[in-house]
């Protein structure tokens, strides 16, 4: 883990693996044949050879499609030999209690992870039985306390499953974070917050929230490790099968860089 103030922090974010207990099970709601466990394994195998300069892997929800103990046990096997710390949070397809019980000690479900002067705050927007995102009073109070505790001259990013701003897709925006206004009322009062990263939307997205004072907080959506959906469409529509991940580089001066990468299908087939 990077702690030196003079060194950039390099992170990976993956999201929405939608796994099953068996690697040969295809994704049930896809019109295309995709094997989500195999797609996740291919991304992890690709990233393993690049870990020397990186500090952690974040998984922002919807690890499971079949929400059973056996699925999380299989995910644990897929993740067990990954050579970096792994921090996860649940999505609407997950059951947090099963995640906690079966992912193992190496894979943590924290509310905050610190890398020297940078702090990653993880918000659990999962609500049982609901596809949209929710935060309750206790979570908002904790978020405010976490941000208030960050010392001057240090910085924060926020990771969550559901998107906190609309992405221009009518059907998907109905399933975003429902308490957007309160979220931004809190976040926009702290200059330490440099970006928000979400999953859930199965597409790359770059938007922004502009505060009352004119400051801009960027919001980045990260595509899935399985199926991708077409952006800005009013209804569900398949886009492509290339699995994705996001790289995040946090610099000592409070700036950041981020980029989405896709694994080509030919590389995916090598690991099937």
TrEMBL record:
Residue ranges annotated for the Calcineurin-like phosphoesterase domain, each copy included: 10-203
Alphabetized InterPro entries for the sequence: Calcineurin-like_PHP (IPR004843), CNP_phosphodiesterase-III (IPR050884), Metallo-depent_PP-like (IPR029052)
Taxonomic superkingdom: Bacteria
Organism: Candidatus Thiothrix anitrata
Family: Belongs to the cyclic nucleotide phosphodiesterase class-III family.
Keywords tagged on the record: Hydrolase, Iron, Metal-binding
Stated name of the protein: Metallophosphoesterase
């Amino acid at each position: 883990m990077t702690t030196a103030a003079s060194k950039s922090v390099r992170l990976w974010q993956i999201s929405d693996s939608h796994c099953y207990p068996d690697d040969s099970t295809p994704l049930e709601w896809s019109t295309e044949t995709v094997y989500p466990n195999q797609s996740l394994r291919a991304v992890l195998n690709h990233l393993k050879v690049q870990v020397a300069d990186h500090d952690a892997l974040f998984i922002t929800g919807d690890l499971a499609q079949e929400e059973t103990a056996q699925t999380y046990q299989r995910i644990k096997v897929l993740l067990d030999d990954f050579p970096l710390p792994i921090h996860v949070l649940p999505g609407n397809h997950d059951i947090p209690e099963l995640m906690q019980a079966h992912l193992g000690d190496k894979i943590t479900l924290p509310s905050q992870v610190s890398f020297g002067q940078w702090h990653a705050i993880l918000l659990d927007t999962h609500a049982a039985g609901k596809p949209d995102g929710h935060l309750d009073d206790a979570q908002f109070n904790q978020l405010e306390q976490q941000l208030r505790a960050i010392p001057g001259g240090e910085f924060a990013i926020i990771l969550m499953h559901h998107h906190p701003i609309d992405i221009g897709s009518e059907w998907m925006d109905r399933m975003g974070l429902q308490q957007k206004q309160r979220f931004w009322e809190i976040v926009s009062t702290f200059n330490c917050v440099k970006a928000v990263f979400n999953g859930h939307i199965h597409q790359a997205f770059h938007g922004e929230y502009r505060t009352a004072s004119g400051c801009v907080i960027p919001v980045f959506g990260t595509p899935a490790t399985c199926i991708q959906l077409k952006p800005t469409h009013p209804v569900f529509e398949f886009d492509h099968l290339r699995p994705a991940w996001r790289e995040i580089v946090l610099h000592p001066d409070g700036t950041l860089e981020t980029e989405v990468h896709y694994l080509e299908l030919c590389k995916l087939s090598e690991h099937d």
